[in-house]
Design goal:
- It comes from Dielma fastidiosa.
- This is PTS EIIA type-2 domain-containing protein.
- The protein has about 40 residues and is mainly alpha-helical.
- Helix content is about 85%, strand content about 0%.
- The radius of gyration is 10 Å and the shape is globular.
- The two termini are about 20 Å apart.
Length: about 40
Amino acid sequence: HLENMMRLSEMLMNEELVEELLEAKSKEDLLAIDKKYYQ
């Protein structure tokens, strides 16, 4: 749980990532964002 909270905190500090999450319209969009930032 703590690891997930740390990852969420890091994500929310990244303005570009937050903007992309707000614009995501589908599961595929979310998967693409995950791949871009975390793989």
